[in-house]
């Protein structure tokens, strides 16, 4: 793409490189450091005059810092002459906080959306945002991509329809699970669960469908503590399931991978929307690249 450049924040440089590889858009040189008082210092070492600039920054882990860094990068890019600024935010921090559950709470996702929209960003590219409510909070253009095609492409033709079923782990995942099972040509079974908003404890009520003697696969947008899928894997095996594969776009708490080896999950597939340090990788975990998907979105 002519007259375009990718500027990467510090949260996920490897994904920025993948997007650059598939889109043929070069990555500009930047410097991100901190002043002694921990304030962020940004320097873009490129002339961006009349260029379309794609800022790549996942806002996870050091969430607050990465959000501020993204805002500062947008301002710096504009001051370097950028014609248009498109923020590629693989994981949008605070997006699960899309409702006010208790009196005294903020509507956190809306605060973050309005904060980012107040910057020089003209357009947003987002991946598997947890709630449609969040997408409706934007007033600027948004391209919303799903990583589902990446998983479908990986498993297409590998799962025999007579021996595999797809599962929706809860009501919130049903819409995604139905589409996933349709794409793979598999029947769908569904869990019904409830979560205690104070303790976060998950309780499964029932399983609609039969998994006895079957292999099971699921798709969801993000995993945090892993409680839902670890408990689900146990119940699926108790119901006679032979194998359970879990597919998740975003792994937002890397430490969760330490729970997987002792769980009944046989394999878990995630994408590289969020950088995963080597120390958090396990034999059960597989990472799929979404660089090509985002490049197509661009």
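^ structure tokens above, recovered residues below v
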């Amino acid at each position: 793409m002519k007259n375009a450049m990718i500027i990467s924040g510090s949260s996920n440089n490897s994904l920025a490189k993948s997007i650059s590889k598939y889109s043929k858009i070069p990555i500009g040189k930047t410097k991100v450091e901190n002043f002694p008082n921990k304030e962020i210092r940004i320097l873009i070492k490129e002339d961006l005059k009349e260029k379309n600039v794609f800022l790549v920054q996942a806002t996870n882990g050091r969430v607050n810092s990465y959000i501020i860094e993204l805002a500062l990068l947008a301002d710096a890019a504009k001051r370097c002459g950028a014609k248009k600024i498109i923020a590629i935010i693989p994981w949008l921090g605070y997006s699960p906080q899309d409702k006010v559950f208790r009196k005294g709470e903020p509507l956190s996702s809306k605060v973050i959306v309005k904060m980012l929209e107040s910057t020089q960003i003209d357009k947003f590219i987002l991946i598997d945002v947890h709630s449609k409510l969040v997408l409706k909070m934007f007033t600027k253009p948004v391209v919303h991509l799903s990583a589902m095609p990446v998983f479908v492409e990986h498993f297409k033709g590998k799962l025999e329809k007579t021996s595999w079923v797809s599962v929706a782990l809860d009501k919130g995942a049903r819409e995604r699970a139905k589409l996933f099972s349709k794409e793979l040509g598999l029947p769908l079974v569904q869990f019904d669960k409830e979560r205690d908003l104070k303790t976060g404890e998950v309780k499964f009520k029932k399983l609609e469908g039969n998994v006895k003697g079957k292999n099971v696969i699921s798709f969801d947008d993000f995993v945090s503590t892993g409680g839902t899928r670890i408990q689900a894997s146990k119940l699926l095996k108790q119901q006679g399931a032979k194998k359970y594969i879990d597919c998740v776009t975003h792994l937002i708490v890397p430490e969760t991978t330490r729970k997987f080896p002792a769980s009944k999950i046989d394999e878990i597939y995630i994408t590289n929307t969020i950088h995963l340090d080597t120390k958090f990788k396990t034999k059960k975990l597989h990472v799929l690249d979404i660089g090509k998907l985002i490049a197509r979105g661009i």
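The radius of gyration is 20 Å.
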